[in-house]
Amino acid sequence: MAAEEAAEASLARLSPEPGREDGDEENPEGGGETAALNGVVVSGKVKSNNLDVKVTESELESEEKGTEEESTRESDSNILDVSSDYPREKHISIQRHLADLEKLADLKEDEKKPCPLCPEEKFKACYSHKLHRHLQNLHWKVSVEFEGYRMCICHLPCRPVKPNLIGDQTFSKMGAHYHCIICSATITRRTDMIGHINRHVNKGETESRFITLPAPKSREVLKESATDVQVLPNYSTPQKTDSYFNPKMKLNRQLIFCALAVLAEERKPIECLDAFGATGIMGLQWAKHLRNSVKVTINDCNENSVTMIQENCHLNKMKVKLNTKEDENHEPMGDGEENTDTIEVTKMDANVIMHLRSFDFIHLDPFGTSVNYLDSAFRNVRNLGIVSLTSTDISSLYAKAQHVALRHYGCNIVRTEYYKELAARIVIAAVTRAAARCNKGIEVLLAVALEHFVLVVVRVLRGPSPADDSAKKIRYLIHCQWCEERIFQKEGNMVEENPYQQLPCDCHGSMPGKTAVILGPLWSGALFNTGFLRRMLFEAVQYGLDEAQPLLKTLVCEAECTTLKHLSTHSPYDENKQEECGVYIKTPNTSAESYLVHGKRKSDDVIRNAAKRQKSENSAEHPAFYYNIHRHSIKGMNMPKLNKFLNYLSEAGYRVSRTHFDPMGVRTNAPLAQFKTILMKYSAPTYAGGQAEGPLHLPEDIQAGEQVQAAADGKAEDAEFLEDEKSGVTATVLAKDYPTCCAAD
């Protein structure tokens, strides 16, 4: 009886008292279950088993000895219930410095102290110097670091392992583990713990709920295009914040705003969706400047981002209509005295909201590739609507990770001189296939590839015929790896015996081995819509978007394949001079509303006129790809200035323009052989330094021979020139060949 009373008293002492928790107990994530040192406690009740009896007897012995070390360890390892939403204390294994961990052991030179992270059965009490080495080598060095804290390995009985059955007895082993600083989960392996923390970071769950962590810093308010947004101090680092805001994407946001402003002039009002809101800066700019012309919906699946979007709407005096997947409660914020517009904020997965609702304008800007959202975007987008997507996975699109491009886009690519335009055509091909699966075609309005992103804006054309026409423009590209000449494969399914014959160059005949590769499938159609770009430029000037205006001027010249001085300056909304090849175009006697009926198909006359207009303007389509003047410069020669070289190509009868893809790129319909011939003709020798730029004066018979035999012998000369350039003796060959030709003649 005395033993039973003593056991009951010990169990009563081990149960948590009101306002205090047992030091050897820990509540893992999920709440309700508590792992105790002296038994398994579920919902505050003790399960009796053989292990409980044994541990209770040892507890009685320790009680008779009257040791105080156990109570010290118990008081240091108190934690709160993880099911609570309120901040809780961190586990003792999570510390900032080694000295903080040593304080838990209360090191004294003359006394033996136990390890605060190991049970006495595993590590007995020892003197301070030995305990210091133990904490440093077996706990501190095998920790996982995160935001200045170290999650040391813990050997306390916080995580029970499956028991081993030996005979009639059951033994429960306690394994080493780590405690997560964010969700307090217990994980055994260090590599698994690192992956667990990385998953928290990728989901934006970086705010720990421990009360000992430093308080979040005050938010910073940024202003862009007359729109205020408050961001976290580490807003520019995606791995450190829930709501990512990149100031370098300002140009991207301005281009998308101009495209939306053009669509808002066609039909009012339009429903537009920012599928990945983050801070909500883009949707706020739409609603603040376009006002009643648009109905803005900002979506994000992160709860912290949704909260910040609502606060930013309140900061800009916008009304908010909150709509979540679970319940649809409207929560107005702000007085709305200055602005009566309402922004709808939703907390859903982007695929879900695009499947549930229809929109006129959809913008996709996820982290990395956007191919996972294309099917949903084209499922319910309205006819003649616009889909814009920003792809930031430039490592795969720019051929740095070719296997990733094959996995995401199903495209084989290599690094070329025109890799940025290649990236834009890869994305458009993926967009075309996604639209075709929904019986929709596309018309490319804009394709921009800069340092940090690839932006594609397309108009949606409903029907199987536009879908078939768009799908036919997806073709493979033959690329010569020696001279970088390229050409799209001919249409048709017939297999050719020698595909090298399609290339304008003759590198395969003069070089050993295989010289060309097949890239793609790629979009082979136009990348720009001249009329739409002109109207975007007009909107950029009207709203004072200074950063977008120079780029839009370059894009207009590139779409028309002309230099800037030949750019016409008529009004983009001039009804008599509109040159857009899209389906929307104004006529002198008919307004735009008669062509664009909201939610209805176009009439047969409009479809017929649009088809005729597209056929007539296909002949004026800009040439595909471009040449880099530095890549094809002649060794030992000073090439002319780029603008002068454009004039030389234009005087030779070729279409020519600069390109935004490459500052030193030239978009022209001239073959590479003629491109090099004109470049060599107007290059000056390096040894004649300081002389004025001008054509290279060659003997008359050589000039005549070049003019007559340029087309016939261009391929052979180009291959021979590249072979000599590879060997590094190009300048010597040029110096020797010209006197030989003169002497022979």
From TrEMBL:
GO terms for biological process: tRNA N2-guanine methylation. One of its GO terms (molecular function) is zinc ion binding. It catalyses: guanosine(27) in tRNA(Tyr) + 2 S-adenosyl-L-methionine = N(2)-dimethylguanosine(27) in tRNA(Tyr) + 2 S-adenosyl-L-homocysteine + 2 H(+). The keyword Repeat does not apply. Residues 63-76 have a biased composition (Basic and acidic residues). InterPro entries: SAM-dependent_MTases_sf, Trm1, tRNA_met_Trm1_C, Znf_C2H2_type. Residues 180-200 form the C2H2-type domain. GO terms for cellular component: nucleolus. Residues 1-86 are annotated as: Disordered. It is found in: Nucleus, Nucleolus. Keywords: Isopeptide bond, Metal-binding, Methyltransferase, Nucleus, Phosphoprotein, RNA-binding, S-adenosyl-L-methionine, Transferase, tRNA processing, tRNA-binding, Ubl conjugation, Zinc, Zinc-finger. PANTHER family: N 2 ,N 2 -DIMETHYLGUANOSINE TRNA METHYLTRANSFERASE, TRMT1-LIKE PROTEIN. Belongs to the class I-like SAM-binding methyltransferase superfamily. Trm1 family. This is tRNA (guanine(27)-N(2))-dimethyltransferase. It comes from Chunga burmeisteri (Black-legged seriema).
